[in-house]
Amino acid sequence: MWGNAFLLSVLYLLAGIVVEVIRRWYPAPFVERLSMALDSLPARGLELVHAMAPLRAAYFSGRITDLGVRVVFGVVTVAVIFLLALVVGAIMGALRWALLRASREGKGPPPGNG
């Protein structure tokens, strides 16, 4: 579970880096929309914890640079991906436990000494 979350977050961040480099060298409308789509995940995560407004204010007042915003978005993206992996893993673990318990109840006690 952790390995998948790590791989997914690395791929997401690499895609973001590639899109950002392309956006700076070739500012096409498609690339701009793609960049906005990639930024929507961390932006929504920050909105959820009411941290987007202070970040926006800091950016527009010059207290944080473009690179700083990218770093914050990268950290939030990794956190969101790991949180999603944890939630999905917990749900799958609970379902597996319920299925194993249901299958054992239908067969009687497990074999063993006694």
Explain what this protein looks like in three dimensions.
The relative contact order is 0.12. The longest helix is centred in the C-terminal third of the chain and has 42 residues, at 66-107. The chain is elongated. Helix content is 84%, strand content 0%. The chain has helices at 2-25, 29-48, 52-61, 66-107. The mean pLDDT is 85. By secondary structure, the chain is mainly α.
Q: What is the radius of gyration computed over CA atoms, rounded to a whole number of angstroms?
A: 22 Å
Strand content: under 5%
| Low-pLDDT windows of residues | none
The count of DSSP E runs of length 2 or more, i.e. the number of strands, is 0
Distance between the termini: 38 Å
**Overall outline:** elongated
Percent helix, as a range, is over 70%
Let me know the average pLDDT: 85
Q: Quickly count the helices.
A: 4
Short description:
By secondary structure, this protein is an all-alpha fold. The chain is 84% helix and 0% strand.
Structure characteristics:
single chain; about 110 residues; mainly alpha; elongated
